């Protein structure tokens, strides 16, 4: 019996052992859960670490790509600059040879394509590693600021009579206008010295600028629609009128508001700047550095203009003649009685003409283009250019009578009546018309005359009923034949070959 009960538990013993059993079971379960938790945390950390490594790798790759793209862009810009420099020296020049290795990259391609006569498109491609950047840039060749005016004077011009000037002005000196002097259609008027507009009229294109390095005297004068007026001296506007375009501003050192009528169009007072916006001395530097003699001398080796010699002067009629670049030295004439030696010009010109003259030039008759949209005449003169309209122009020195267009007795050269020393008397009864780009030491106009284009001279003496009109088409037409120092390069567009957006 005893052996039969061996190995069996009494009910009390079972009850006493169950709590221990469950305790051991819970302990084992807790150990298993902790292991799983540790494994899960380890896995998460590994995933997170892997992600960090991957992100770091991607970031480094992106940074490297960004550096390479930036280097490629800089290389493309360098290619553009190389092409611009070549075009500045010769607008018909081709691009430099490629590839050009620079640093860790290269300029892989540069092309230059004509858009029109004055515009070129540059395509430059830079590569750094696998990165590529290409730029398309358009550059335009235009005239230097000294030619972007109706009148550019190296000194104070002498204006008298009924003179009308339409266009910009660049004056390295003082400017006096009055009741008979009219300035219109000006985008920019720059006067280094004083501007005396007493009883005068100045019309600035709406939003344009009037810049005066000295004092502005506008007593009983009228100045209309500047967007910006700068007077580095003082403003005397007693009984005068200055009407600004909308949004106009002004500067003068004095904080006292100018007298007279000084208002914005359809508005009130004009705001004053605390300081000047423009450096007037810098703007007039081109007018201060005019050098017609030096420029003319540079053309001595060019073909001589095929002129007709008439006594103490040369004559040339452009009608039917072949355009080109020519040089003429009028001082090679054997003058009579110390008369000024000169060339007389007239006719209708076709094509693009450039004539450098050592001596003086007189416009004998109308001088006009055959096709105003493409023809041009540039006169570079180290002496005087003279335009005489209706009225008497008397250059006398001695006896005798010379009538330049008469068919009288011939005693000399040409169809002129000459006896001994010459007295030349020209009677013109019509308005003289001239279309040209003029760069000279001195410019004179008298009688009724209309001068289109631009006139640049160290000194001016303009009277009578003279009109000077800035002709931008004629100025643009001159770009291909102008010397390099009278031409400037301007970037008109700059973009990537393929736009990002």
Task: Give a topology summary.
Layout: H1 11-89, E1 100-102, E2 105-116, E3 119-128, E4 131-143, E5 151-153, E6 158-159, E7 163-166, E8 169-171, E9 175-176, E10 181-191, E11 195-196, E12 201-212, E13 216-217, E14 222-231, E15 235-236, E16 241-244, E17 249-251, E18 261-264, H2 280-283, H3 285-288, H4 292-297, E19 308-310, E20 313-317, E21 325-329, E22 342-349, E23 352-358, E24 360-369, E25 376-388, E26 391-396, E27 423-428, E28 432-446, E29 448-462, E30 465-470, H5 472-477, E31 487-496
InterPro entries: DUF7305, PilX_N_dom
Pfam family, one: PilX_N
Domain Type 4 fimbrial biogenesis protein PilX N-terminal: 31-81
What can be said about this structure in brief?
The protein has 5 helices and 31 strands.
Describe this protein's structure:
It is a single chain. The protein is built from 5 helices and 31 strands. The chain has 501 residues and is of the alpha/beta class. The protein folds into 3 domains: 139 residues, GSPII I/J protein-like (Pantoate--beta-alanine Ligase, Chain: A,domain 2, 2-Layer Sandwich), CATH 3.30.1300.30; 101 residues, no CATH class; 180 residues, no CATH class. Strands 5-8-10-7-30-29 form a 6-stranded parallel β-barrel. A hairpin with a 2-residue loop joins strand 2 and strand 3. The longest helix has 79 residues. The chain is elongated and about 145 Å long. About 7% of the residues have low confidence. InterPro entries: DUF7305, PilX_N_dom.
């Amino acid at each position: 019996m005893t052996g039969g009960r061996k190995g069996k538990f009494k009910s009390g013993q079972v009850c006493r052992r169950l709590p221990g059993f469950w305790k051991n079971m819970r302990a084992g379960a807790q150990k298993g859960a902790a292991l799983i938790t540790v494994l899960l945390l380890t896995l998460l950390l590994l995933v997170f670490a892997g992600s960090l490594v991957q992100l770091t790798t991607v970031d480094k790759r992106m940074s490297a790509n960004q550096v390479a793209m930036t280097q490629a862009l800089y290389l493309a810009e360098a290619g553009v600059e190389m092409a611009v420099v070549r075009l500045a020296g010769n607008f018909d020049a081709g691009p430099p040879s490629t590839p050009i290795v620079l640093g860790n990259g290269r300029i892989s391609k540069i092309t230059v394509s004509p858009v029109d006569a004055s515009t070129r498109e540059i395509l430059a491609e830079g590569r750094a590693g696998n990165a590529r950047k290409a730029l398309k840039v358009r550059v335009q060749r235009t005239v230097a600021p000294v030619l972007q005016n109706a009148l550019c004077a190296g000194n104070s011009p002498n204006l008298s009579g009924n003179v009308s000037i339409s266009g910009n002005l660049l004056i390295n000196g003082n400017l006096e206008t009055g009741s008979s002097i009219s300035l219109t259609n000006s985008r920019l008027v720059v006067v280094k010295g004083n501007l005396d507009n007493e009883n005068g009229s100045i019309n600035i294109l709406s939003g344009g600028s009037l810049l005066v390095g000295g004092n502005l005297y506008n007593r009983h004068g009228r100045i209309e629609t500047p967007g910006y007026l700068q007077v580095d001296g003082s403003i005397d506007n007693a009984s005068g009128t200055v009407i600004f375009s909308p949004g106009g501003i002004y500067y003068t050192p004095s904080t006292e508001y100018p007298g007279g009528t000084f208002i914005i169009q359809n508005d009130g007072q004009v705001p004053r700047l605390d300081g000047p916006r423009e450096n007037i001395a810098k703007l007039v530097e081109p007018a201060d550095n005019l050098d017609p003699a030096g420029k003319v001398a540079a053309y001595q080796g060019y073909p001589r203009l095929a002129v007709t010699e008439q006594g103490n002067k040369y004559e040339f009629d452009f009608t039917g003649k072949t355009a080109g670049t020519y040089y003429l030295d009028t001082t090679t004439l054997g003058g009579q009685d110390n008369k000024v030696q000169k060339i007389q010009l007239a006719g209708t010109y076709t094509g693009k003409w450039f004539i450098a003259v050592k001596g003086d030039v007189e416009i004998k008759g109308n001088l006009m283009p055959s096709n105003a949209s493409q023809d041009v005449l540039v006169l570079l003169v180290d002496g005087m250019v003279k335009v005489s309209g209706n009225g008497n122009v008397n250059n006398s020195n001695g006896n005798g009578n010379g009538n330049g267009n008469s068919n009288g007795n011939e005693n000399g050269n040409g169809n002129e009546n000459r006896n001994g020393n010459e007295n030349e008397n020209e009677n013109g009864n019509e308005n003289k018309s001239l279309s040209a780009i003029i760069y000279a030491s001195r410019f004179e106009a008298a009688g009724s005359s209309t001068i289109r284009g631009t006139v640049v001279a160290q000194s001016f003496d303009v009277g009578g009923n003279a009109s000077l009109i800035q002709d931008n088409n004629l100025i643009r037409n001159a770009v291909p034949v102008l010397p390099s120092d009278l031409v400037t390069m301007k970037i008109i567009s700059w973009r990537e070959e393929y736009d990002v957006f």
